[in-house]
Amino acid sequence: MNENSVLELCKSTEDLANELKLIAETYEKSVQQLNQKFKQIEQCISKCMNNMKANNELLSEWKEVKKQLNYVSGSERTKYESAVNEMKKKLDENVRITETVVYERHNHSNFLRSLIGDAPLKLWNETDQMKFKREYNNFKERTLIFFIMFPLCQIYLEFSILLHQIHMLFLFYYYVSLALRENILKQNGSRIEPWWMYHHYITLFVSLLRTTLRPKSVKEKNKMDVRTSEVIDEKPHGDFLFLIPTLYATYLFQLLIAFYFAYIFFGQPFSCLYERAQMGLLAIVWAILPFGNLSTLIKVLNGNPTTSSLAHSNTSLSCVTSGSR
Predict the structure, then answer these.
(1) Largest CA distance in the chain
(2) Which residue ranges traverse the bilayer (predicted)?
(3) Where are the domains positioned within the chain?
(4) Which of 21, 84, 183, 214 has its CA 20 to 30 A from that of 3?
(5) How many whole angstroms separate alpha carbon 259 and alpha carbon 30?
């Protein structure tokens, strides 16, 4: 055995151990400094909340002064009116600053609060923010195949109640996951349209409804009957102009589905209340979806006339949500 090789190996091992030890010490020191910064942030938030109470008291006094100003004569009123208006501007600015600071402390989504409580979900590191955004888009890309696979399996393997239930459970998981991720993105500055989150609340309710209520044919099957499945009209990065007419057509089909369920609800006999309730609820949610989708799409298009049609961006985070699933 070569003694020099052993000594060199020992030296390399010791150097690596010393370097890792230094890295660990630096890491621990950085974490401590970061925690100190977070404590300072908490102190700033607490001070803002205390100052907000004082600001509210001043606002109440300002309202009283404003009322008294109405009973003052013209010349004297002019003397104080500009000062009163300037005071109101400063009070409003105080509210804006306080809300900006305090906003980071609380969970502002009722959906998130119902699942995880009022825990703050702010991602302070911009790298983590962008990673979370990428994971959101990657999740939608990875799950696209299931929106094709499940309908095809139902067509070619004949209808199976087990496969149907698995499909509905997947949709429930998918829409809950999207709603969670979108609410967290919203907490971290994403400008995603609120309708897309409401849309996913509705669709997860539909998937739950279709899972718990037993599907039953309302008429005898005819040889010319066709099957319908969920239309996939969204790509995580859908920014092609030719998709817009497709989206309009999809929303029209959604409205037709709502009319179809409404026709069954009013025009077909039912053996029990649950079956009628199922058709009524499906008619309602299918009627809400196209109007919400259409109004939000028009809003996005009108708000971004110089950019591609279906993408809305943010300086740090942006959710690209272009259609409906």
Answers:
(1) 106
(2) 144-175, 240-266, 278-298
(3) 16-105, 111-303
(4) 21
(5) 61
